[in-house]
Amino acid sequence: MTCVEELNELYALENDLSFETHASGLTLARVNIPECQAECMLHGAHVLSYRPAHRERSILFLSDQAVFAQGKPIRGGIPICFPWFGSHPTDQTLPAHGWARTQAWELIETARTKNQVILRMALAQDELYSICELAFGAELSIDVSVTNGSDIPRTFEIALHTYFEINSITDVEVSGLENVPYVDQLKNEIHPGENTTIRFEEETDRIYQGSVKKITLSERNQKTQFIIEPRGSRSTIVWNPWIEKSKRMADFGDEEYLRMCCIETANVRANQIKLAAGQTHSTGATIRLA
User: Fold this and answer.
1) Which residue of the set 46, 139, 161, 229 is catalytic?
2) Catalytic residue check, 264
3) Which end of the chain is more exposed for a tag (fewer CB within 10 A), N or C?
């Protein structure tokens, strides 16, 4: 019996959830229920697409140049950056954004509620034990809980690196972070809350440090609003690579910066998580259309 056959035998939910082998050889989970259609990789516990029933396309951006391969991150969807964000703080030879997004997670449970399909996946490495729970329905929820399995305190960073599919980056604005101070990673500057929405006219890479209840990404000309409701999060990253950086990324099209905007539920830098032995912390978000 192949891996996919075994997964279907143990975890498929009739026509609502099935597993198949992606063209790359990686394992793909496919959700098809009245409330939504979605795709998720066991590789990285990575949500590739999510389309609510009343929408014609996924709300998540996936690059046409994305690489699907063992040990490689996927550009788009919702990568899980963990247990560090960006470069490793002490060892530059280690992969950017940690090892969670390039590892095969183990599927441990699936369930069907009245209006959702739920998948739970696990990953154990370096005495950190993680559970990713994905709930697909009229809204998308993702929660990653991390338990310190060692006998000493541990620290980690985490970011749910969500790429939103938009029509044009020049026509969007982000609200909900107006009064939150942020670090401009491009200029290495700290800014107080600016009491204004975020608009995009150049490369943007900001870490907002403070808890918020709701963030809204609006497309002014399309009347589309994406709502992000964070949980257990004290940081939010807002990112668009703009023109020159897009050209430098091998797994990203030169013009694709126009069609995406990243808003990442996170705990990073000054707000990294510190766990005592045996403690657990969960970082999560619910994403929906207004």
Assistant:
1) 161
2) yes
3) N
